[in-house]
């Protein structure tokens, strides 16, 4: 719905004095074309909020500047609009789910609504950007956040350099308290970084940039928004265990940057060769015990980190116990911290009971396995003996089995581990690896695995083998790079380029005033596929019957959509 006749600039939400196209305050031009996937500036939602210019977008959706007409103040409006699963009705506001993506769209829409519901409970925490309202409309959900004139912590670092530990503890305290409360509700941020922390004029900090898990995990349905140096290893894989420890890593990385002025190495690079230097080595002013706490909190293995923000905060305020940063009992907030997506803390007693039961269960399984292996060995021995007797009794000359005195007994077989999904360097660094396996490596581009990860092995996992077995593995080089020049390219040339690179893609046609008809508007990479957006030119030149879909009606378009892919 178009907004009422209110003279506001859609770039800054200040009242305009005349009918000038360019705002004298912020320079926003009303003639600037808007992205066809997102809402047009001036749209009214919930009969209360005017949508202004597009500020940012990721795989989950878009963030707009807005104005609350009932309060006459600026707000931020977040719209669930996953470009991998949906498109915008041409010339309208309704969100249309892509054919075959309905279930995924609805499931992630539900996740978005749940996130909004939980964040609204935390609106009194000063360390978070408050979510004040959320509602359904246009087949999607909108979240409304407070607007505060702030800069990002990343920009603040560039202008002010490193901070002292005392200043940092004081400034971060509200955020740590808010994150701990967020975790108590079962919400994990997964994107804490200098880009998602705002600095106010009085230098107070606020955390923002909340997203659903699928938008912060590689190889999910949506294009993942990860923050190099701040996102932990488990976010780069679907098999990684995510939880409160995930945010602990990110917070520690932010503190590391604040104290040293250096961004930590990206997690996948650390897995292949860890070059993370202790903070005290980069900046000698950092206390040694603080440096050790940060080093442990940024451990590549989640179970080696402090498991909660509370435990991490406690470690930052007191020197380490002898022998390490964190002792087994140093986390007084609960012993059962390494579990996926904990929503509530378990009591220590329940954990001990579960731990004891787990030990009993594993012991029973090990004993049973040992008995079965022994029985199997006896049966195989009997079979070998039978074959040997048969060979001696029935074959003149050379026997079937070599029984010469210098023959040695073969080593007992074992099951080959599953290397698929693991980083090659991590596998090769394991103890006794070189003694057990001869590895043949082949590198190939792979859309589903990050660079350095094994995606195929031969023999396959659980094959019975003995030491010195030859194992052939295929290692990902990451997705095949898409040339920057493809944007603006003619459709036929763009498709040939992708075909030559063996990149799967899907063509989406849409109107765009800024790109000539038949040329590429943008390219969006999805797990295993690329979306190629092709311009149909300006809507002004479209016939009324086309509906914006190449001469077809909207219904006809969706009946065949999804078949045009390579």
Structure description:
This protein is α+β, with helices and mostly antiparallel strands. The protein has 4 domains: about 1-145, 2-Layer Sandwich (Phosphorylase Kinase, domain 1), CATH 3.30.200; about 150-330, Transferase(Phosphotransferase), domain 1 (Orthogonal Bundle), CATH 1.10.510.10; about 415-480, 2-Layer Sandwich (Trypsin Inhibitor V, Chain A); about 485-560, Trypsin Inhibitor V, Chain A. About 30% of the residues lie in helices and about 20% in strands. It has 13 helices and 19 strands. The protein has helices at about 100-120, 155-160, 165-185, 245-260, 265-270, 280, 290-295, 310-315, 350-395, 425-430, 435, 490-500, 555-560, and strands at about 45, 50-55, 60-70, 75-80, 85-90, 95, 130-135, 140-145, 150, 195-200, 205, 415, 435-445, 455-460, 465, 470-475, 505-510, 520-525, 530-535. The strands form 6 sheets. A 6-stranded antiparallel sheet has the order 1-2-3-4-8-7, covered by helices on one side. A hairpin with a 2-residue loop joins strand 7 (about 130-135) and strand 8 (about 140-145). Helix 3 (about 165-185) runs antiparallel to helix 4 and helix 4 crosses helix 7 (about 290-295). It is globular, with a radius of gyration of 29 Å. Pfam families: PASTA, Pkinase. This is Serine/threonine protein kinase. InterPro entries: Kinase-like_dom_sf, PASTA_dom, Prot_kinase_dom. GO terms for molecular function: ATP binding; protein serine/threonine kinase activity. It comes from Acetanaerobacterium elongatum.
């Amino acid at each position: 719905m178009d907004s009422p006749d209110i003279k506001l600039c859609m770039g800054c939400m200040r009242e305009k004095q005349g009918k000038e196209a360019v705002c004298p305050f912020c320079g926003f031009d009303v003639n600037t074309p808007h992205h066809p996937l997102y809402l047009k500036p001036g749209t009214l939602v919930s009969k209360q909020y005017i949508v202004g210019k597009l500020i940012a977008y990721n795989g989950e959706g878009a963030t707009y500047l807005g104005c609350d007409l009932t309060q006459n103040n600026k707000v931020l409006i977040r719209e669930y609009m996953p470009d991998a699963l949906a498109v915008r009705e041409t010339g309208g506001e309704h969100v249309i789910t892509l054919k075959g993506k309905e279930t995924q769209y609805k499931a992630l829409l539900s996740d978005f609504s749940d996130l909004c519901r939980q964040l609204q409970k935390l609106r009194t925490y000063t360390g978070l950007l408050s979510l004040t309202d959320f509602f359904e409309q246009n087949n999607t959900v909108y979240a409304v956040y407070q607007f505060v004139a702030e800069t990002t912590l990343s920009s603040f670092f560039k202008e002010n350099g490193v901070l002292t530990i005392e200043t940092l503890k004081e400034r971060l305290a509200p955020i740590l308290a808010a994150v701990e409360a967020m975790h108590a509700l079962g919400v994990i941020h997964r994107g804490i970084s200098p880009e998602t922390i705002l600095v106010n004029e009085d230098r107070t900090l606020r955390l923002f940039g909340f997203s659903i898990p699928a938008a912060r995990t590689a190889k999910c349905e949506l294009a993942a928004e990860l923050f190099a140096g701040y996102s932990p290893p488990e976010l780069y894989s679907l098999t990684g265990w995510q939880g409160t420890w995930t945010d602990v890593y990110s917070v520690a990385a932010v503190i590391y940057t604040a104290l040293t002025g250096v961004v930590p190495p990206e997690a996948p690079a650390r897995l292949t060769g860890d070059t993370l230097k202790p903070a005290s080595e980069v900046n000698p002013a950092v206390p040694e015990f603080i440096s050790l706490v940060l080093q442990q909190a940024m451990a590549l293995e989640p179970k080696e980190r402090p498991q909660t923000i509370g435990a991490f905060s406690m470690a930052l305020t007191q020197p380490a116990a002898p022998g390490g940063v964190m002792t087994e009992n140093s986390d007084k907030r609960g012993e059962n911290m390494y579990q996926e997506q904990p929503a509530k803390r378990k009591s220590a007693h329940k954990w001990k009971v579960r731990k004891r039961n787990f030990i009993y269960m594993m012991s029973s399984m090990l004993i049973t396995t040992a008995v079965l292996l022994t029985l199997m060995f006896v049966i195989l021995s009997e079979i070998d003996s039978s074959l040997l007797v048969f060979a001696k009794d029935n074959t003149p000359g050379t026997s079937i089995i070599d029984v010469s005195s210098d023959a040695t007994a073969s080593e007992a077989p074992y099951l080959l581990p599953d290397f698929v999904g693991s980083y090659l360097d991590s596998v090769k660094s394991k103890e006794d690896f070189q003694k057990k396996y001869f590895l043949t490596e082949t590198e190939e581009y792979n859309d589903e695995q990050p660079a350095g990860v094994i995606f195929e092995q031969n023999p396959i996992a659980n094959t019975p083998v003995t030491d010195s077995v030859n194992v052939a593995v295929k290692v990902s080089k990451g997705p095949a790079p898409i040339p920057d020049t493809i944007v603006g390219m003619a459709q036929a040339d763009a498709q040939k380029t992708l075909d030559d690179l063996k990149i799967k893609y899907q063509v989406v046609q849409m109107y765009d005033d800024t790109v000539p008809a038949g040329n590429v508007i943008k390219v969006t990479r999805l797990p295993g596929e690329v979306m190629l957006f092709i311009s149909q030119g300006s809507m002004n030149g479209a016939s009324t019957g086309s509906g914006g879909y190449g001469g077809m009606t909207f219904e006809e378009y969706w009946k065949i959509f999804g078949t045009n892919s390579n």
